[in-house]
Amino acid sequence: MFNFQRALLASTLVCSAQLAHANVTVDFREGAPKDRFTITYTGECVLNDVVFNIDLTGTDGKLIFDTTAAGAGVEVFQPFEVTQGAVKLISSQRVNDGDKALSLAIEKLGSGDSISFTIDVDDTLTNSELGNIRVSNSEIRGGTVRVQVGKNISASAVFGSNSKAETSALTCA
Predict the structure, then answer these.
(1) Which of 28, 6, 19 is nearest to 138 (CA)?
(2) pTM for the full model?
């Protein structure tokens, strides 16, 4: 009986480890002259080989990245710049003016880790709440975030009118 109880406890611990939560929040903040995206991980385990895809295609404000003086953006522009953490842009060498999506690679995220980057985001509405160079919270609503961990674990979330997208469907060992 003792060996059975030990085996049962061991299998319970393995199942608990497989069901650890891995919540990720992506927070967008309008700023002047740079807008900021902050990715915060509040999970219970370390995530390795993480890819984040941020897609503004479905946003209410028809948002774009404004990275050069010429092109689709309005007036002020800012290129992609990492401000916190070890993150690599993998969608291309740089975010082009007028792009609506970008992909980032992060080698490792531990519980409580945050990474952030700045870039200019403009809306393309003909009649926008704050003008085209500033983005209101409701204008990012509908944008998506997809998180891929390794080759097997993924989750997605949609930005709400609070400018946040939170994945809660990720699990890890």
Answers:
(1) 28
(2) 0.81
